[in-house]
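Pasting as-is:
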Amino acid sequence: MKAAWLGAHIPWAQIETCLPQVLALGLAPEIAIKGPELEIVEEQLILRISAALQDAGVRPRVHAPFFDLNPGALDPLIRQATRQRLEQSLRFAGRLHADLMIIHPGVDKWRYPRLEDVWLEHALAFFPSLVQQAEDLDCCLAIENIYEESPDTLVQLVSGIDSSFFGHCFDAGHWHLFGRRPMDEWLKSVSSKLFHLHLHDNHGRADEHLPVGDGTIDFSPLQRHLKGMSALPSITLEARSLEHLQRSLQEVNRLLI
């Protein structure tokens, strides 16, 4: 049992340094870009990175900007800014021939007390045109759990959009910090549209991004769930150093055997 796509997180600012290291490990890059970086992306750098990826026979993943952005925001100006950044991000992803872009939802119970339904209404209106843009680029979109205590709102969003180009990214570290549903229940809820996994570890107190196995996450429900899937989701190892990436890779290879 091996994931068809196994990759590593790389910030765009570190792409020239880190891409050769990631490719040397037999991994693909999930490239994370910040909003302001989209304004100053160098054309020649995109061409160099795109050529390196094509030479390696790899289609990358892209992690869209998320600070201050919210596709279901109550303020229409925030939704407008979010649309501009995500459309820019998709064009960036298209230039790199990415086949998946990960998006943060931007909703939590503290900023939206008893307003999740209003957020969902706005998000359901926000995403169709973005999904169409993604489909035109042959690049799927995956919405990532962050502060959610349950997957219900994100499941309603993905079900409501109802596109083969729009699904879930399950982040194990975020689930450990904020989730209030057992991992197996969460995975079952999103399984029909589970496109992607973010794997890293923590001790349940902060988003430490430790190597898999160094924190207190029990990954055995994920292991069982993956064994029951006919097609595995792709996986990104979110590590903060080459050493941590190598340790995560060793543990995840054991997990997926």
